TrEMBL record:
It holds the Pfam family ABC_tran. Its main location: membrane. This is ABC transporter ATP-binding protein/permease. The lineage of its organism: Bacteria, Bacillati, Bacillota, Clostridia, Lachnospirales. It is found in: Cell membrane. Keywords: ATP-binding, Membrane, Nucleotide-binding, Transmembrane, Transmembrane helix. Residues 26-276 form the ABC transmembrane type-1 domain. Coiled coil: none annotated. SMART domains: AAA. It is a multi-pass membrane protein. GO terms for molecular function: ATP binding. It comes from Dorea acetigenes. The chain crosses the membrane at residues 20-46, 66-91, 167-185, 251-273, 285-304.
Length: 591
C-alpha cells in the first residue's frame, strides 16, 4: 500500500514523463521475451542436426537459425537499452522536479527552520533523497519488469516442446522452494526485521560516535570507550554469524536442487526411454538440458531483483518532511511600523509540540534607540527571544511588535530592512570579501562597501590578504578566523544599516586583539540604533541601557548593571562568578 503510494507520488513528479516510465517497463518486459528467442532457434538447430544425422552436409538452415539466435540476442539487448533510455529520461526529470519543488518550498520557510535543521542536512536531504529515487525509477523498476517477464516466457518455453520434461524441470525448483520455506518458515520475516534493527542500531551508534569523535580524540580514548557503539557492532556480528549458521543446511539443499535440474531430467529420461528412444525425444531432452541453467539464472535474478522499496520510502518521507513544513503566512493587511521600538507581549513559543516552552509569557518593551543586553544561563531562551523578533519563527501565543505593529503584519521586505542579525557563527560565502559584504545591499557601491569594512575594523584583514577586498575567501588556502569572520559579518550589517540590530556575541575569542576589534566594531554599529544584544561576557554589558536576565524562558530580572549588581539575584551571582573567573584570567562564560 505504502509502496504504491510512493510510486504514485514519484510518477506525480514525472508529469508527462510518466509515460516514458511506463514505456520503460513495457520495453524491458518485452526484451525479456526476446531474450528467450535464441533458445527457440537453438532448438531448431538441434532438430535439424538430428534429422539429417549422420549426413550433416544436408542441413540447410543451420546458418540461418544460428544467425537468428544471435540477432534476437542482440535485439533483446537493444530493446533493453531503449527501456533504460526511457526510464532514465523520466528518472532525471523526476529528480530535477523533486529538487526544484523542495528548493522553492524551502525559500518560503521560516529562517529558524534552516537554522535548527542545519543547511548541510537540508542539502543532504534534497540531494541524496532525490538521487535515491533516480536509481529506483531508472534501474530497479525496469529490472523488476524484466525479472517478472522472464519466468512467464520461460514457463511457455518449457511447456511448448515437451510438457512432461517441462514439468520435470520445474519439480526440483518447486522442491527447493518448499524446503527453503519449511526450514526457514515464518522465522524469515522475523529474522529480516531483527537484521534491519541490528543494522539500524549500528548506524545510529556510528553517527553518535562520529559526532563525539573529537571529544574522544582529545582525551586520547579509542573506539572502545564508545561502549554502546562497540556493543552494537558485537551484537550485529553475533546475530549475523548465528543467522548464517542457521541458513547453512537449507541453503545447501536449495542450491543443490536448483543447480541439479539436469540430473533429474537425465534420470527421468532413462526411465522414459526404457523401451526405445525417438529422435524427437532426444532433441527435446538435449534442449531442456541446455535450458536448465536459464531457470537457475532467472531464479537468482528474481531473488536479487532488489527493489529497495525501503530506500525509496525513506527518501520520500525525508522529502515530505521538508514539503510538509508550513511557510510563514503572508499578511493580508500589511501595516507599517511607526518607529523602531520592539515589544513582546505575553509571548510564548516552543520548538516542538510537547517540548517545554522556550519562551513563556515573556513581556518586554524596548523603546527606539535603547540598548538592551540579554544575559542568563545557557538554554534560558535568549537566542529564541531574538529569533522571534526577527520573525525567524512565529510565536505560539502573544505577539511581537515592531514600531507598534505585529511582525506578522509587516511585509517581509520591510521587516528585513528594519531588523538585522549578527550571528555567533557568521557564514562567509566562497566569493570575494567585497561580494560577501555587498550581499547585504546589492546596489551598494565599492566605496560604500569599503567604508563599511573600515567601520567594522576590518582594515587589518584587508591588509594581510593578497588581493585585499577582492580576495576570494575559502579559496587557495585563504581562511579567516572566527573573530575576523564576525567582523566581516558586522560590515555586512553596517552596510545594510537597519535601525534595529540583534547581536549574538561570540562566546570566546582566541586573542585579545581580535576581541577588542570586534567590540569596537559592535560599538560603531550600535550607534543610534535599537539594539538587542545577547551577551556571554559580562564585561560587555556594563555600559548597556538595560540588562535583562533570562532564565527558563522567563524574564528573571531587569535593570541597569548598577541596580542589578546590588540586588540579591541571579545577576549579582553571575557578576561575582565573573569577577572571580576574571581574576583567574579565564574571563569566559561559556554558552
Ligand atoms: P540560550 O540562547 O539562552 O542559550 P536558546 O534560546 O538557544 O537559549 O534555547 C532555549 C530552549 O530552547 C532550550 O531548552 C533549547 O534546548 C531549546 N531550543 C533552542 N533551539 C532549538 C531548536 N532549534 N529546536 C528545538 N529546541 C531548541
Ligand atoms: Mg544562545
Amino acid at each position: 500500500m505504502k509502496k504504491e503510494s510512493n510510486l504514485k507520488k514519484l510518477l506525480g513528479y514525472a508529469g508527462n514523463y510518466k509515460y516514458l516510465t511506463i514505456a520503460s517497463w513495457v520495453l524491458s518486459a518485452f526484451s525479456a521475451f526476446v531474450a528467450l528467442l535464441p533458445f527457440v532457434y537453438i532448438w531448431k538447430v538441434i532438430k535439424e542436426v538430428l534429422e539429417v544425422a549422420p549426413n550433416y552436409a544436408e542441413a540447410q538452415n543451420l546458418a540461418y537459425n544460428g544467425w537468428m539466435a544471435v540477432l534476437s540476442a542482440v535485439a533483446a539487448i537493444l530493446i533493453y537499452v531503449m527501456a533504460l533510455l526511457c526510464s532514465h529520461l523520466a528518472a532525471f526529470r523526476v529528480q530535477a522536479n523533486i529538487r526544484m519543488k523542495a528548493m522553492h518550498h524551502i525559500v518560503t520557510l521560516p529562517v529558524g527552520f534552516m537554522d535548527s535543521v542545519g543547511s548541510g542536512k537540508i542539502r543532504k536531504i534534497v540531494y541524496e533523497s532525490s538521487a535515491a529515487t533516480e536509481t529506483y525509477l531508472a534501474h530497479q523498476l525496469p529490472d523488476k519488469a524484466n525479472a517478472l517477464a522472464t519466468p512467464v516466457g520461460l514457463l511457455i518455453l518449457l511447456m511448448v516442446f515437451d510438457w512432461r520434461l517441462g514439468l520435470l524441470s520445474l519439480l526440483p525448483i518447486a522442491a527447493a522452494f518448499i524446503i527453503m520455506s519449511v526450514m526457514t518458515g515464518k522465522r524469515m520475516a522475523e529474522k529480516m526485521k531483527e537484521y534491519n534493527d541490528a543494522l539500524a542500531q549500528m548506524s545510529n551508534e556510528a553517527v553518535e560516535y562520529v559526532r563525539g569523535i573529537s571529544v574522544v580524540k582529545t582525551f586520547g580514548q579509542s573506539v572502545f570507550s564508545f561502549k554502546r557503539f562497540k556493543e552494537s557492532i558485537d551484537n550485529y556480528e553475533k546475530w549475523v554469524i548465528a543467522y548464517t549458521k542457521d541458513l547453512r543446511l537449507p541453503m545447501m539443499v536449495y542450491t543443490t536442487l536448483v543447480n541439479g535440474v539436469f540430473a533429474v531430467l537425465i534420470a527421468a529420461a532413462l526411465v522414459m526411454t526404457s523401451d526405445g528412444v525417438t529422435n524427437e525425444f532426444l532433441l527435446n531432452l538435449m534442449y531442456y538440458i541446455i535450458i536448465t541453467p536459464i531457470i537457475t539464472l532467472t531464479l537468482t535474478k528474481i531473488m536479487y531483483a532488489s527493489e529497495n522499496k525501503l530506500i525509496v520510502a525513506d527518501a520520500m518521507s525525508r522529502i515530505d518532511s521538508i514539503l510538509e513544513r508550513k511557510p510563514l503566512p503572508e499578511t493580508k493587511n500589511p501595516r507599517h511600523p511607526e518607529n523602531n521600538s520592539v515589544e513582546l507581549d505575553r509571548v510564548s513559543f516552543c520548538y516542538k509540540e510537547g517540548d517545554k516552552n522556550a519562551l513563556d509569557q515573556v513581556s518586554i518593551k524596548i523603546h527606539a534607540g535603547e540598548h538592551v543586553a540579554f544575559v542568563g544561563p545557557s538554554g534560558g531562551g535568549k537566542t529564541t527571544l531574538a529569533s522571534v523578533v526577527a520573525r525567524f519563527w512565529d510565536v505560539n501565543s502573544g505577539s511581537v511588535k515592531i514600531g507598534g505593529v505585529d511582525v506578522r503584519d509587516i511585509p517581509k521586505e520591510e521587516l528585513m530592512n528594519m531588523v538585522s542579525f549578527v550571528f555567533q557563527d557568521s557564514k562567509l560565502l566562497k566569493t570575494s570579501i567585497l561580494e560577501n559584504v555587498r550581499i547585504a545591499r546589492p546596489d551598494a557601491s565599492r566605496e560604500e562597501v569599503l567604508e563599511a569594512l573600515r567601520d567594522a575594523q576590518c582594515g587589518d584583514i584587508l591588509d594581510k590578504l593578497p588581493e585585499g577586498v577582492d580576495t576570494v575567501v575559502g579559496a587557495k588556502g585563504i581562511y579567516l578566523s572566527g573573530g575576523e569572520q564576525q567582523r566581516i559579518a558586522i560590515a555586512r550589517v553596517m552596510l545594510k544599516n537597519t535601525p534595529i540590530l540583534i547581536l549574538d556575541e561570540a562566546t570566546a575569542f582566541a586573542d585579545p586583539d581580535n576581541e577588542a576589534k570586534v567590540q569596537a566594531a559592535f560599538r560603531m554599529l550600535a550607534k543610534g540604533k535599537t539594539v538587542l544584544m545577547i551577551a556571554h561576557r559580562l564585561s560587555t554589558v556594563t555600559g548597556m541601557d538595560r540588562i535583562v536576565v533570562i532564565k527558563d524562558g522567563k524574564i528573571a530580572d531587569s535593570g541597569t548593571h548598577e541596580q542589578l549588581k546590588e540586588k540579591d539575584g541571579l545577576y549579582a551571582e553571575m557578576w561575582k562568578q565573573y569577577n572571580k573567573a576574571a581574576k583567574w584570567k579565564v574571563g569566559v562564560v561559556n554558552d
